[in-house]
Give the backbone structure.
Amino acid sequence: MAIVPRRRRRQQQSKSALLQKSMLNSIKILEESLRDAGKLREILQAKEEGYEKAQDSERRERLITEIDMLKHLLFLVNRRDVAAADNKGND
């Protein structure tokens, strides 16, 4: 059994804390997000513009996470809307 040096252990704990923070941020985005595709597109565009203007890396990383989650949510909303339209057509 190898002994992990303190420095390496702290680095691993730091990465774990960052990953957990990222996951909690992703969950928060999904819980608070809209379900309207048009508004989601507007928010997504604003976040992408904010990413382009962001100077510090921490803000850019947070925006990347938000943008990815918004894209995923937009995909799900669009898929739901298509499915609902298909169901109306079959009735």
In short: The mean pLDDT is 81. The first helix runs from residue 6 to 32.
